[in-house]
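Cross-check.
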Amino acid sequence: MLTHLKLRHLRCFEVAACQPGNGTTVFLGENAQGKTSILEAVCVAMRLQSPRTANLADLIRFGEKEFAVSATLAGQELLFGYSGNRRRMTIDSETMRSSGDYLRQSALVVWMSNDDMALVRGGSEGRRRFLDFLGSQLHPPYRPALRDYERALRARNFLLKRDAYPRWDQIDAYTRVLAEHAAILTRLRRELVARLEPFAAEVQAEVSGRAEPLGLVYEAAGGDRLEEVLAGFRDEESRKRGTAAGPHRDDFGITLHGMAASRFASEGQQRTTALALKIGQARLFLAESRRPPLLLLDDIFGELDPGRRNALMAALPVHSQKLITTTHLDWLRDHLQPESVYEVTRGMVAPGT
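Predicted model, tokenized:
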């Protein structure tokens, strides 16, 4: 359990601290006061990444040069500091040599927000980020394979752009490296989608209250045969000067009743499907790791009708610690009494009543 959190020079906060309860903690306040940034800080402390930006420098408070987040998790003191040119990761004051060493001792995290609708009706990039966040928490080989793939992809794209006529002998050397890591990512992503599907389908039925068969279909862009696929794209790559296939273009399709949810589902169904993916992720974590994940719920309840809201609350993993942001408590009191309430105003955090 997360029992203490402290932020320094993060987003709108100069310094802030709180003590989450073992069950549900609520951060109450108007919009644009800093509530979401608190949950973001928890995610960064636990997973070394933000669900809101790929660039951690964006989290540094204006006018400062670094930020730091410390958290007490199951009695251990985790600290992550970022200064733009270096990262600091410690557990009980011991410096971790690698992010893997740090992450193995942190918590699994599920982030839920209104932006999750983009999983259903947005572009493929958001769904890839979802798979990467899921895979990097469940499988130790996932994160290094993704990092090495992205490094090889940048080098290959550089060579495609560098010369007036591509030097295929040099480019092909990176193609082989790219294909090696692509095969790992493709296998892990295919397995993730297959294992996630039954959990997401289960939640879809529970939250919607009716039979709405949900399906997930992995769509690999080259994957296991990447070298062969890229060999057929040489003319296109010579024109566009970029890698035409690979996991950086992967996607997964989402269907309801066998039809594309992005095109044929109602807005309510799409919202439920987005929630089903995230709660399905939480159930998958619990099933495979035997550890209830930490749930970060960013103001997701206001857009739901009472029926779906009630069903969502019932579907959340019972033993997971929950950190919730909201602009009012009226709806929440109908479901549970939070152990801790904090009021957030203009970058200040104070115990609520």
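The radius of gyration is 21 Å. The mean pLDDT is 93. Passed to J.P. for a second look.
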